[in-house]
């Protein structure tokens, strides 16, 4: 499969997205895995899909790859219809590159043969293999067998193999989930560079929000078969579209706010409302991030009026998170600045809001999807009563 | 009849090195365990050693004997049998494994069980069934006689022997390939699809190469079975090594020549066994993680019913023909007013030797299992290897070696039940130690240590904690040994006292002489007995 007929990426019509999915549905018996998904991946863009396990994100990838057929909806890769009305193009003719969760290297082939698998008809394949092994920083591993490699190395080989036939789009299914934490962070950075260097467009599916935030040019948050929000990571974090997104991506305290003309009045002070939140009027829930709150030791101790008490302290290595409780039982997660790092559980603090831009949700939309686990234990939502 | 119902010997450090207990590595095993272990190892390899000595002492020129046309003809026949059985078991086993694991074959579970059942039928029972059904004076010819059919195609020789052995041993291929397919990481095939290959190409470039070690390992087990088999080849009068060894042993005074033949057979089985072990290791390297998401089975479409017909035909020939033949001859015996009864003597002989050997093996299993699981020293490894070596040797070879040993070293034991029972216990010991060792390795010594910290003395901790824990394993192992002994033919035939008949020897000798009606009764009893034992084993398994 020679890459010569491909239109060079830089001259390709920029209007044509690498991937366009519309109204995609897939059910297994009575279980709805994908319940109407629309997504677009632009050329050279990396889209990350974040969601709790079982939300249907892997199914979306498999539908794009053609490993399964959708019940409804259409998929276009590089402007070419591959699934939907008019039948389905088999996976081998979709020009997708897939990186599987468990790498799925061919155990009976050497590393070089694994990478060359999809380009066996390419007369220059040995050059291409060398080039790719160089790209993934494994220039001397060509003769080794997959089972002799570490998990991280297998991962790189899997990426090189997927990129070899110059696919129109690369699909990465939780590519780091089988690796340990330190390796994960390192490979994450490498992956970004590799994919940039290859100019690949892609979708990366993950349940790890750090991965989704750092790797995505844009990210989609998916739950129960639907996309809750699809936007650049900064927007998803700063202006979450739903309470679920607010509490699933990062730590989001949902605090009662009286909203009027783009300002929300909370018990901690006013917040400026942006995005759709700016149009909310009346009682609502505003999203307060831990870094929005400034802490100060209460001079008079617990006796001080309006003082909060520290009930939990979590040291994450780079920062300290404190869960504080008001006398009426309301709890919040806050970030401890240098001034209050030495405080312990039981100490009393004063809270003050920084100058904050955030979003608020009108009450009708505050229902959290049930059965959804927070991504991190500390990402517990606080809903003011 | 190679009893291969036990998982093959774990090899190398991986197996014995995997330790769960809190024991200090290299802790010195108690003297009693060492003594028992050494005795078992010595008894396991002694026959083989003696066989070598005996063969070396042959008066005839060994090389001339080995090279004479008769020997080379036997060698050729044995190789031919191995090749035909190998090809045949692949031809039956691979499609059956694929159909029952990967497709939407109707009643998949039922076929999965039924296609593996022939493994429980001794080859001489299948041999009897085929001779008595399709032989010159068999049931089919009898039924066709009124239609003027005087002769059926020849069943004796290679075609019959190969057919019977293929039917008896193809389940090895089914089991190995099934395991390989279930273990395979399906996303590997999906990766190949996304890399541009269609279904067929993926099968050729990925699925088949990945399954190759499993297919080859299963096939080698089947070939090993065929090489070691005595019952089927002797009943179907095919001169493979087993039969030639037996005839040589019966016919001449110079039994050294039989020893020489036996050594050649040992060499062949060793080659096959080591090949199988290497392939099994390779298969392990290829193994992936079991599929996480349910995989949709391949739709057979219009091939659905032809596939059912194929599987049903195999089951019919391997299971229904023997059952029908036995029933036919039983009824016929009744109809013709022949004194129809199964003598109690062979039943009691089979039961007695089986129970005695199983009991002896169970007694040895605990100390040997303790040695293997708790003291994985070099000695333990040697004991284990010796034990598996005697298990893998063809029965005819072991029997012959023991005859030599007994006649020259311990004439008192020659042709006594003591020798036969001890030989059985040693030969099938691996079946008894396997489950015990596995249980002990799983539990480690932590539970016993917990007992010690709770105030038990060492003896009490052992009897109170460890013994109850391994009791089911000891019983399961003993049941496996019982099953093997009851089905065993050549050792009973050669080592048994004069006039001693077991069910196995009864079936064999009456079939050899053409008294099919008299073989049918013991065959039915034997099948019921092994079915009952297997049922007990499975019930314990399910618990």
Report low-confidence residues of chain B grouped into runs of 5 or more: 1-26
| Low-confidence segments of chain A | 1-13, 365-385
State the domain count of chain A: 2
Q: Mind telling me the CATH class of the largest domain in chain A?
A: Alpha Beta
Shape of chain B: globular
Second rung of CATH, namely the architecture of the largest domain in chain A: 3-Layer(aba) Sandwich
Overall pLDDT confidence of chain A: 85
End-to-end span of chain B in angstroms?
30 Å
Order of helices and strands of chain B: HHHHHHHHHHHHHHHHHHHHHHHH
Query: CATH H level of the largest domain in chain A: which superfamily?
Result: P-loop containing nucleotide triphosphate hydrolases
CATH architecture classification name of chain B? Orthogonal Bundle
Secondary-structure element series of chain A:
EEEHEEEHHHEHEHEEHHEEEEEEEEEEEE
**Helical content class of chain B:** over 70%
What oligomerization state is this entry in? heterodimer
Distance between the termini of chain A: 62 Å
């Amino acid at each position: 499969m020679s890459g010569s007929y491909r239109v060079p990426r830089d001259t390709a019509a920029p209007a044509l997205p690498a991937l366009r999915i519309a109204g995609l549905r897939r059910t297994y018996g009575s279980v709805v895995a994908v319940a109407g998904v629309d997504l677009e991946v632009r050329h050279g863009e990396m889209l990350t899909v974040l969601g709790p396990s079982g939300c249907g994100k892997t199914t979306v990838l498999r539908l794009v790859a053609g490993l399964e057929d959708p019940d409804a909806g259409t998929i276009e890769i590089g402007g070419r219809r591959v699934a939907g009305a008019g039948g389905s193009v088999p996976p081998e003719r979709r020009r997708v590159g897939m990186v599987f969760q468990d790498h799925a290297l061919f155990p009976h082939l050497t590393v070089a043969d694994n990478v060359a698998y999809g380009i066996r008809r390419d007369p220059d394949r040995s050059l291409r293999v060398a080039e790719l092994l160089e790209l993934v920083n494994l220039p001397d591993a060509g003769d080794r067998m997959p089972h002799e490699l570490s998990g991280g190395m297998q991962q790189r080989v899997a990426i090189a193999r997927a990129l070899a036939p110059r696919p129109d789009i690369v699909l990465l299914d939780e590519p780091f989930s089988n690796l340990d934490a330190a390796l994960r962070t390192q490979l994450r950075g490498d992956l970004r560079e590799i994919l940039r260097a290859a100019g690949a467009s892609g979708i990366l599916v993950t349940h790890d929000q750090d991965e989704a935030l750092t790797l995505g040019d844009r990210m989609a948050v998916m739950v129960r078969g639907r996309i809750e929000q699809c936007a650049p990571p900064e927007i998803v974090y700063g202006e979450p579209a739903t309470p679920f997104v607010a509490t699933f991506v990062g730590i989001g305290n949902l605090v009662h706010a009286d909203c009027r003309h783009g300002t929300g009045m909370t018990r901690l002070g006013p917040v400026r409302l942006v995005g759709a939140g700016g149009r909310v009027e009346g009682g609502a829930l505003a999203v307060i991030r831990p870094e929005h709150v400034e802490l100060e030791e209460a001079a008079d101790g617990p006796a001080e009026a309006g003082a909060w008490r520290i009930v939990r302290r979590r040291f994450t290595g780079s920062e300290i998170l404190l869960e504080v409780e008001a006398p009426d039982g309301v709890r919040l997660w806050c970030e401890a600045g240098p001034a209050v790092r030495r405080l312990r559980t039981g100490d009393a603090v004063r809270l003050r809001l920084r100058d904050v831009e955030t979003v608020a949700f009108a009450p009708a939309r505050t229902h959290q999807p049930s059965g959804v686990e927070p991504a991190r234990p500390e990402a517990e939502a606080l809903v003011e009563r | 009849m190679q009893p291969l119902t036990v998982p093959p010997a774990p090899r190398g450090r991986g197996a014995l090195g995997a330790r769960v207990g809190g024991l200090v590595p290299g802790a010195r095993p108690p003297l009693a365990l060492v003594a028992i272990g050494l005795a078992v190892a010595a008894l396991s390899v002694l026959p083989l050693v003696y066989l070598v000595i005996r063969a070396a002492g042959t008066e005839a020129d060994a090389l001339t004997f080995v090279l004479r046309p008769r020997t080379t003809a036997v060698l050729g026949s044995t190789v031919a049998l191995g090749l035909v059985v190998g090809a045949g078991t692949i031809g039956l086993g691979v499609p059956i494994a694929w159909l029952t694991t990967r497709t939407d074959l109707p009643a998949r579970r039922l076929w999965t069980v039924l296609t593996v059942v022939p493994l429980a039928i001794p080859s001489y029972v299948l041999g009897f069934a085929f001779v008595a059904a399709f032989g010159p004076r068999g049931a089919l010819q009898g039924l066709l006689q009124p239609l003027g059919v005087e002769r059926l195609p020849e069943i004796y020789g290679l075609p019959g022997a190969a057919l019977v052995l293929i039917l008896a041993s193809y389940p090895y291929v089914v089991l190995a390939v099934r395991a390989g397919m279930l273990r395979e990481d399906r996303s590997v095939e999906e990766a190949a699809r996304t890399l541009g290959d269609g279904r067929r190409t993926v099968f050729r470039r990925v699925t088949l190469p990945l399954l190759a070690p499993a297919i080859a390992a299963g096939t080698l087990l089947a070939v090993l079975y065929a090489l070691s088999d005595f019952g089927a080849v002797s009943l179907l009068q095919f001169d493979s090594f087993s039969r030639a060894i037996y005839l040589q042993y019966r016919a001449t005074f110079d039994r050294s020549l039989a020893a020489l033949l036996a050594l050649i057979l040992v060499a062949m089985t060793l080659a096959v066994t080591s090949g199988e072990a290497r392939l099994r290791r390779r298969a392990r390297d290829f193994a992936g993680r079991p599929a996480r998401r349910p995989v949709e089975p391949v739709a057979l479409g219009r091939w659905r019913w032809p596939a059912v017909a194929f599987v049903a035909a195999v089951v019919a020939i391997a299971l229904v023909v023997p059952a029908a033949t036995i029933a036919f001859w039983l009824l016929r015996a009744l109809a013709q007013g022949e004194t129809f009864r199964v003598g109690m003597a062979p039943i009691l002989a089979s039961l007695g030797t089986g129970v005695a050997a199983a009991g002896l093996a169970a007694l040895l299993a605990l100390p040997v299992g303790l040695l293997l699981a708790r003291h994985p020293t070099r000695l333990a490894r040697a004991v284990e290897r010796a034990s598996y070596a005697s298990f893998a040797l063809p029965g005819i070879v072991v029997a012959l070696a023991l005859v030599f040993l007994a006649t020259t070293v311990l004439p008192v034991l020659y042709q006594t039940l003591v020798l036969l029972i001890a030989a059985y216990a040693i030969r099938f010991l691996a079946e008894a130690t396997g489950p015990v060792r596995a249980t002990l390795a799983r539990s480690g010594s932590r539970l016993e240590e917990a007992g010690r910290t709770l105030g038990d003395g060492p003896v009490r901790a052992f009897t109170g904690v460890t013994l109850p824990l391994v009791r089911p394993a000891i019983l399961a192992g003993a049941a496996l040994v019982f099953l093997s002994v009851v089905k065993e033919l050549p050792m009973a035939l050669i080592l048994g006292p004069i006039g001693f008949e077991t069910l196995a020897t009864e079936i064999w000798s009456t079939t050899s002489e053409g008294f099919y009606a008299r073989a049918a009764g013991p065959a039915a009893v034997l099948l019921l007995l092994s079915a009952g034992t297997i049922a007990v084993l499975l019930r314990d398994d399910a618990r």
